[in-house]
C-alpha cells in the first residue's frame, strides 16, 4: 500500500521496507532488564500523566528504567515499528495510517480520548469563518483532525475555508497572534493568549465530547507478545501518574510549567483544570469510536485507510488490569 502524500507516508514506506531486518533484533530484547524507551511527539499537556509517572518515580517503583524521548509526529511510528522505541505516545491518526501501510501496532490506552481543542478566530461567529485562513500543523497530526472535526461540527466544509499547513503548534499559534491566519485549533495554555488578544472562541471541542485518540499509548504486537510483564508494569506506573494529575494540582502545574516553558500560574492553572476536568476519563480506555475520526480524516490521502479494521487496533487488557477492571 502507498501513501499519496505527506512526510508520514515517506517515513513509513522507508521503515516498513527494512523492518524485517530490524524488528527481530530491535524490539524483542529491549526491556528485558527493565530499560525501555518511550517516545512522545509534542510538549503539550496531553502528555502530563506520562511526565508525572516518569518524574515522580512511579516507573522506577515498578522496576523500570523508562527513557522518554521527543520525536516529531511523523517519526514516532517508524521508530516504534523498527524497535528503536518500545512504546509510543502518539495520535490515533498515526496508528490508523500506519496500519493501512502494513504496520502492526496496537493502541493500549487513550490519554486524551476526546478532541482537546478550541477554535479561536478573529471573527465573532463560526459562520464568518467561510473564506478565511485556518492554520494547522501537518496532516499527520491530531491538530489537523481536530480542525476538520470542528468544521464538521460547525456545518462548514473544508472547501469553504483556506486550510494552511504551518508545521508546528508554535508556528500555528504565532501566526494567529500575528493575524497572518484567521483561526486555528488550540487549547490551554495558548488559548489564554488568544483571549487576551481579543480573539473569539467559536467552539470548545472538549465540551462537545467528540471521541478521538488525540494522544494514546501504543506498542507493536510483537513487543506486547514478547514482553507483557514490562508493558504491565509500565501501565501500572502510568496509572499512578494519571491519578496524581487528577488529584494534585500543585504538582501537576509544576511539571507542566517545566515542560511547557510557562511561568504564568494563571495559564498553568487553566491548563490543569481543562485537562483534569474536561479531557481525562477514568479508565483511559481506547475505543473504536475514538479512531473513527482519524480514519475519516485520512480518507482520500492514505490508500487503504478505509479498509482498516479499527477494532483490531485496540488492546485494552493492560488498562483493564492496571486500573482494577473499572
TrEMBL record:
The signal peptide stretch is 1-22
Q: Lineage, please?
A: Bacteria, Bacillati, Actinomycetota, Actinomycetes, Pseudonocardiales
Q: Which organism is it from?
A: Amycolatopsis rhabdoformis
Q: Which Pfam families match?
A: NMT1
Which superkingdom does the taxonomy of this entry point to?
Answer: Bacteria
Q: What is this protein called?
A: ABC transporter substrate-binding protein
Alphabetized UniProt keyword annotations: Signal
Limits of the SsuA/THI5-like domain: 48-243
Q: Which InterPro entries match?
A: SsuA/THI5
